[in-house]
Amino acid sequence: DADVTQTPRNRITKTGKRIMLECSQTKGHDRMYWYRQDPGLGLRLIYYSFDVKDINKGEISDGYSVSRQAQAKFSLSLESAIPNQTALYFCATRDSQETQYFGPGTRLLVL
Amino acid sequence: AQTVTQSQPEMSVQEAETVTLSCTYDTSESDYYLFWYKQPPSRQMILVIRQEAYKQQNATENRFSVNFQKAAKSFSLKISDSQLGDAAMYFCAYRSALGNQFYFGTGTSLTVIP
Lengths: 111, 114
Description:
- The complex is a heterodimer.
- Chain A is mostly beta strands.
- Chain A has strands spanning 4-7, 10-13, 19-25, 31-38, 42-51, 54-57, 65-70, 73-78, 87-94, 100-102, 106-110.
- In chain B, 0% of the residues lie in helices and 54% in strands.
- In chain B, the strands form three sheets. In chain B, strands 2, 5, 6, 10, 11 and 12 form a six-stranded mixed beta sheet that branches.
- The radius of gyration of chain B is 14 Å and the shape is globular.
- Chain A binds chain B through residues 31, 33, 40-45, 48, 50, 56, 58-59, 88, 90, 92, 97-102, 104-105, 107, and chain B through 1, 4, 9, 33, 35, 42-47, 50, 52, 91, 93, 95, 100-102, 104-107.
């Protein structure tokens, strides 16, 4: 079983809709991250969290919000989706050795 | 924000040959971590190799090795005896020892020619 899972794997939505991407992990790591990947731009950090009470903005947090419901769960929300939020979204955890473990990604298309 | 630059958008290598992917970064800090990640067509991000800046010895993982030049702020990845399964997008990443964010380069797409 995968250590970091993301749901859904693919999603098509319309402009203005609210959408939530979910991430769960079984690695027991406190640190969790949300990234988006765009062609030619690599991965950019949206939000990160060190525990359920510690949420931090990354470099591109505008238009996004997150919730850390438990150590194992970290959700990303788009309150009102827009087409330029079409991207591949990754959740990741990080261990004490500085290694990140990525989920399989969610491909989001906003029409 | 830190800058990580991968100047080779695409590279190709013959099967069984050696290829080197380049990465440079911009930082004023002395203690940090550097990483190479592989992203095959399955889109899963997989850690290939990691280097701590305080270690002078270059990291090695089987056929993968790095050439870490701290003064030049360079961190290249060498893949020896290239295999078809090495074909993927490769990302270089940086994290300050004092910070919490990871910064990624824009990636190099590697093609392995049979």
